[in-house]
Amino acid sequence: MAEFNVVVVDDEEVVVELIQEILELLNVDYYAFARAAEAFRFLEKRKVGLIISDVNLPDMNGLHFYQKVVNSFPELAGKFLFISGLPLQGELKAIVDTTRSGFIQKPFNIPDFRSAVQKFIPR
Fold first, then answer.
1. What per-residue confidence (pLDDT) applies to 1?
2. pTM
3. Can you say how many angstroms the Cα of residue 11 is from the centroid of all Cα atoms in its chain?
4. Which helix (H) or strand (E) holds 51?
5. CA 19 to centroid of chain Cα atoms
6. N vs C: which end of the chain shows fewer Cβ within 10 Å?
7. What does the DSSP 8-state code read for residue 47?
């Protein structure tokens, strides 16, 4: 399999640790960031196959982060897996419905999250 990198953007340490465990089980390289600005700087230097992003981030709304990323890297438009404690609705629902992006609500179970991530991994 070609190199497949995942960026994780979430400020909740326990959530990041769970996601990291799942990605390790899937044998996927990942880079975790607590802030969207840090993740964006990383994206300027490295290609990734998936961005797992919380919707509520301390420095930028996850939807604004999505727009900033897609404006600079249009090829990543359908490569987001959004996570949120809130249900899928409004602008986020429109993004998920019109792109190949995904959504999973917190708290999530491991099999559902793993399945959501696997949809993005090239076979």
1. 43
2. 0.93
3. 13
4. strand 50-54
5. 10
6. C
7. -
How does strand 80-84 pair with strand 50-54? parallel
Per-position pLDDT tens, the chain of length 123: 457 899 999 999 999 999 999 999 999 999 999 999 999 999 999 999 999 999 999 899 889 999 999 999 999 999 999 999 888 888 888 888 888 899 999 999 999 999 999 999 987
> Residue 106 corresponds to which tokens in the numbers above?
């917190």
Domain at 5-118: CATH architecture: 3-Layer(aba) Sandwich (3.40)
Long-range pairs, 29-32, Cβ under 8 A, ≥24: 29/3, 29/4, 29/5, 30/5, 30/6, 31/5, 31/6, 31/7, 32/7, 32/8
Count of H helices and E strands in the chain? 5, 5
Structure-token match 């996927």, residue found: 28
